[in-house]
Every structure is written in structure tokens, then in C-alpha cells.
């Protein structure tokens, strides 16, 4: 990746990349000359990542990405690109990497590993002392195992990395750290996590038909709550085919993509599996009174009704559920940003992006869940021999990605009928600002994620309390074992 092949991205993307490094090739220089600066040059503050200087003599910055055959949405598409092809995200990746490679005399490379083999692959490399990667990604559901097996470096020990910069998320780092150590994280560089972050989508045409416009206003004024959402869902549902029963041809208020969609509602209502004590140590929270309340509310509203569809309770093939939304017969749909372009391609409905609702108006923030089975974090292998280069390059990649690849991702995702929707982009920005990364999901001590929060609707009755009682001891002992291992290994 040493040469640009054209300038087809948005001017803001060109400006952002050119600010890091000069372009090779006459066509790019022409674009730079004719594209006005976003901010007058004399008033610009140079971002920290642009002050970093180094020459790595053509060394390779080797990244292991995750992949799952047949499921493009689980793949780390943001790491590298072979060249421009006119697709906005791909071209932004290519330009970003080319600029970084040129400035630092380095080559960014990627090798992919099946998502289910990440832990064993990194484990084998660690045990053999094979320093094959400077950085690797792992899905959230497997991330805990990379720590309990001692595979990761404490990211706080890396040089050059400044977590106070805006392209890092201080709240995410605070949630993921353990006793002041940070073994995995994310930044504006990572897109697989955002691609698999839960969002709420609503049918604007249907909302307007029932007298509700600009549901985004509820979010802005702090009144977008679970009860308000359920009230709207109930109000639009109906047996429109007149056969006396609710089926796949009727109009529904709420469509949940899976049992994880229910868990996402739980998390959005403040249901954190793990909180922290004063020493930054995890404390299991699933047995707290406040965790019981969202579970009760979910089961009480989602079971035995004719307005919500959730796969455990569906009366028909769950694979057909998305068609109900694209056919214009669902008001609310839990899904992911990568689904939006599919909706635009297969439907004429006007839809908008929303955050997940709060439990009550007194809840301070809107939260959303990073999908344990698709979202990922990145780590530095403990045996890495290139920590100086790694620290600088993840800082630079994180910084330059904000106005290049991340912005391109917004452009790709926020299109309704192939027109860029600024309102939905603003909603995505709000969603991404409060993604919940929960150590309870990543370590799953005693099954508090897989056997409890992810299963609220599967038991046939509300068994949250009894299920928690059955796993509480193993959850607590599992967490204590993890903390003891970290303390004893001094990783």
C-alpha cells in the first residue's frame, strides 16, 4: 500500500488524511490544492497524534483480525485495504493507511483468524514465544480468556498512548480496566465494535401515520423511556389481514432480532452485570435489587402479548422477521448499523436511528450493548517485541481514523433511500458515545451472561431470581480466581 489511485472520498476525508502526510501522485496533490481547509490554518491546534515522529525502516506492523466465513459483519474490515474501489469505507481505509505508512516508513499488514480460534491461536503463539503480531482483535465473549491465560500486555505500559485524547473513550477504559490495568480496549480505529453495536431503528412512515413525528425529540428531551416505547408499540399493532390472529402478515410494534436484543434492552435500562469498587476491582451486580427490576419489566411486557416479536416467543420462522420490518409492518426494530444498508437496498420505507430507551427519565444516560458475539476489542500480545512501534501506531491509527474511516462509516451507515441522513448520523454518534462494555459479559463468571441476562425470555416464566441464586457462588468464586491470577502473575 504505497500509492494513491484517485480522490473519490468526501473532501473532509481528503483533508484529514492530507493533514497527516503528503500524497503521492499528481491527482491527489491537485485535490489537496483545491480542497479548502476545514479550519483556518492559523487557528488550528495540532492534534497530539500528528506530533509523533518516527522512522521504522520499512518494518511491518502486523495485526491479527477476526473473521467468520459467510458472515461479513463479524470481520475486521477496518484494518487494511488492498486498494481503492470507489466504496467509501474501503477507500478511506486505504488512504489512511497509505498516509501512515508513508510518514512512518512502515507497512500495515493483516492476517485473519477464525473468531472461534483467536484464543487458541494467540495461546499457541505465546507458549512458543512466536512474536507474530503487534496487535490482535478478539470478540467480547472470548476476551476474558485472553486475560485469565496471561496472553495480553497491560496497555497502560505502552509508550506514546494518551488515553485523554478524544479518539479514546475514557468511560470504556474505566469499564474495562481491572485494578488499574488495561488488557484490552477500543478506539476510533476500531469499526467492528461499532458495526455490531445495538441500535434501535424505527419506521418513520408508520410513526407519522399514527401521529408521532420525530421520535428523536424524545431522546433530546430525556423522555425516551422503556414505558414510552412500549406504549407506542402497543398503539400501532394490529391484525391487518383480518384472520383473527397475529402472524407474520400483520403489523407489529416491536421486533427483537434475538435473545441478545432482550439483553440489550436490559443493559440499556442500567442493568450492568459488573460495577467497580474504589480500587477499580470488579463487583458482580446481577443480584442487586436494581437488576431485578428491568428483568421483571422485560418479562412482564414482552411475554404473552400481541405487539412484540422476540425469537423465543415467535409464532413463526424467526428468519422471516426482518422482512416484516422491510415490508413496513414494524414500528421498532433492534438491529446493528451494518443492517441499515440492507434495509435501504431492500425497502422503500423511511426509517430513522434511535438510541435504546432508558428505564426512567431519571436515568442519566442512554446506554447500548456491544454485541458479545460480533463486537470486538484489541489487545497487544504479552510477548510483543515491538511495543514502542505498537504504542505509536495505535495512537496514530486511533487519531487519524476519527475524520477518515469512522466518518466514512457514518456516511455508509446513515443512508435512507440512499440519501445521507444527518439526523440518524447524530443518533449513531450518541449511541457510540455510550456503548456498554461489561466485564461480566467478557468473563462470564459462573454464566452470569450466557445463563442469566441473555436468557431472560427463554425460561417460560420469570426465573431471574432463582437462576441467579443457582449460579451466584460459582460467579463470585470465578471472579475471585481471576483477580487472584492477575495479582499473582503480575501481568
Task: Describe the overall structure.
The chain is α/β, with parallel strands linked by helices. It has 2 domains: 11-195 and 373-413, Periplasmic binding protein-like II (D-Maltodextrin-Binding Protein, domain 2, 3-Layer(aba) Sandwich), CATH 3.40.190; 199-369 and 434-489, D-Maltodextrin-Binding Protein, domain 2 (3-Layer(aba) Sandwich), CATH 3.40.190. It has helices spanning 11-18, 26-34, 88-104, 118-128, 140-148, 170-176, 192-195, 204-209, 216-220, 226-236, 259-268, 289-302, 321-326, 337-346, 387-401, 405-413, 422-433, 439-443, 464-489; strands spanning 59-67, 106-114, 135-139, 199-203, 252-255, 274-276, 282-284, 308-309, 330-335, 351-354, 368-369, 376-379, 415-416, 419-420, 435-436. The strands form 5 sheets. The chain has a 5-stranded mixed beta sheet with strand order 8-5-9-4-10. Strands 2-1-3-12 form a 4-stranded mixed beta sheet. A hairpin with a 2-residue loop joins strand 13 (415-416) and strand 14. Helix 3 packs antiparallel against helix 16. The longest helix is centred in the C-terminal third of the chain and has 26 residues, at 464-489. The two termini are 35 Å apart. Residues 1-14 and 22-39 have low confidence and may be disordered.
Question: Descriptors for this entry?
Answer:
491 residues, alpha/beta, D-Maltodextrin-Binding Protein, domain 2, 19 helices
In short:
This protein is an alpha/beta fold and 491 residues long. It has 19 helices and 15 strands.
Topology:
Blueprint: H1 11-18, H2 26-34, E1 59-67, H3 88-104, E2 106-114, H4 118-128, E3 135-139, H5 140-148, H6 170-176, H7 192-195, E4 199-203, H8 204-209, H9 216-220, H10 226-236, E5 252-255, H11 259-268, E6 274-276, E7 282-284, H12 289-302, E8 308-309, H13 321-326, E9 330-335, H14 337-346, E10 351-354, E11 368-369, E12 376-379, H15 387-401, H16 405-413, E13 415-416, E14 419-420, H17 422-433, E15 435-436, H18 439-443, H19 464-489
Parallel strand pairs: 1-2, 1-3, 5-8, 5-9, 11-15
Antiparallel strand pairs: 3-12, 4-9, 4-10, 6-7, 13-14
Helix pairs in contact: 1-3, 3-15, 3-16, 4-5
Amino acid at each position: 500500500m504505497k500509492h494513491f489511485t484517485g480522490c473519490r472520498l468526501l473532501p473532509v476525508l481528503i483533508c484529514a488524511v492530507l493533514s497527516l502526510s503528503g500524497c503521492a501522485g499528481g491527482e491527489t496533490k491537485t485535490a489537496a490544492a483545491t480542497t479548502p481547509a476545514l479550519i483556518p490554518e492559523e487557528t488550528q491546534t495540532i492534534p497530539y497524534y500528528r506530533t509523533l515522529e518516527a522512522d521504522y525502516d520499512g518494518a511491518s506492523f502486523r495485526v491479527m483480525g477476526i473473521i467468520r466465513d459467510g458472515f461479513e459483519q463479524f470481520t475486521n474490515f477496518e484494518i487494511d485495504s488492498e486498494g481503492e474501489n470507489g466504496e467509501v469505507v474501503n477507500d478511506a481505509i486505504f488512504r489512511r493507511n497509505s498516509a501512515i505508512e508513508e510518514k512512518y516508513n512502515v507497512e500495515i499488514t493483516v492476517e485473519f483468524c477464525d473468531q472461534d480460534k483467536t484464543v487458541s491461536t494467540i495461546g499457541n503463539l505465546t507458549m512458543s514465544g512466536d512474536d507474530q503480531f503487534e496487535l490482535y482483535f478478539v470478540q467480547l465473549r472470548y476476551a476474558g480468556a485472553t486475560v485469565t491465560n496471561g496472553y495480553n500486555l497491560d496497555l497502560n505500559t505502552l509508550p506514546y498512548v494518551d488515553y485523554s485524547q478524544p479518539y479514546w473513550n475514557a468511560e470504556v477504559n474505566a469499564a474495562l480496566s481491572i485494578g488499574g490495568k488495561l488488557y484490552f480496549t477500543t478506539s476510533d480505529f476500531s469499526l467492528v465494535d461499532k458495526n455490531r453495536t445495538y441500535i434501535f431503528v424505527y419506521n418513520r412512515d408508520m410513526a407519522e401515520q399514527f401521529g408521532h413525528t420525530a421520535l428523536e425529540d424524545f431522546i433530546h428531551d430525556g423522555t425516551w423511556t422503556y414505558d414510552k416505547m412500549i406504549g407506542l408499540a402497543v398503539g400501532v399493532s394490529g391484525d391487518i389481514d383480518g384472520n383473527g390472529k397475529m402472524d407474520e402478515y400483520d403489523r407489529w410494534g416491536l421486533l427483537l432480532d434475538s435473545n441478545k436484543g432482550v439483553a440489550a434492552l436490559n443493559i440499556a435500562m442500567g442493568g450492568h452485570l459488573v460495577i467497580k469498587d474504589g480500587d477499580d476491582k470488579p463487583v458482580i451486580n446481577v443480584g442487586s435489587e436494581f437488576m431485578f427490576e428491568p428483568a421483571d419489566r422485560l418479562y412482564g411486557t414482552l411475554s404473552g402479548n400481541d405487539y412484540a416479536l422476540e425469537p423465543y416467543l415467535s409464532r413463526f420462522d424467526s428468519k422471516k422477521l426482518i422482512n416484516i420490518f422491510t415490508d413496513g409492518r414494524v414500528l421498532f426494530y433492534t438491529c446493528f448499523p451494518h443492517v441499515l444498508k440492507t434495509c435501504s437496498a431492500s425497502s422503500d420505507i423511511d426509517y430513522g436511528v434511535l438510541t435504546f430507551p432508558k428505564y426512567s427519565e431519571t436515568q442519566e444516560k442512554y446506554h447500548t450493548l456491544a454485541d458479545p458475539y460480533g463486537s470486538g476489542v484489541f489487545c497487544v500480545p504479552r510477548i510483543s517485541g515491538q511495543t514502542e512501534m505498537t504504542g505509536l501506531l495505535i495512537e496514530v491509527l486511533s487519531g487519524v481514523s476519527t475524520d477518515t474511516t469512522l466518518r466514512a462509516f457514518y456516511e455508509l451507515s446513515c443512508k435512507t433511500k440512499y440519501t445521507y441522513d444527518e439526523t440518524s448520523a447524530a443518533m449513531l454518534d450518541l449511541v457510540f458515545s455510550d456503548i456498554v462494555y461489561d466485564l461480566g459479559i467478557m468473563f462470564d463468571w459462573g454464566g452470569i451472561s450466557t445463563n442469566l441476562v441473555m436468557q431472560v425470555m427463554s425460561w417460560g416464566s420469570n426465573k431471574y431470581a432463582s437462576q441467579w441464586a443457582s449460579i451466584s457462588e460459582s460467579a463470585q468464586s470465578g471472579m475471585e480466581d481471576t483477580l487472584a491470577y492477575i495479582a499473582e502473575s503480575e501481568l
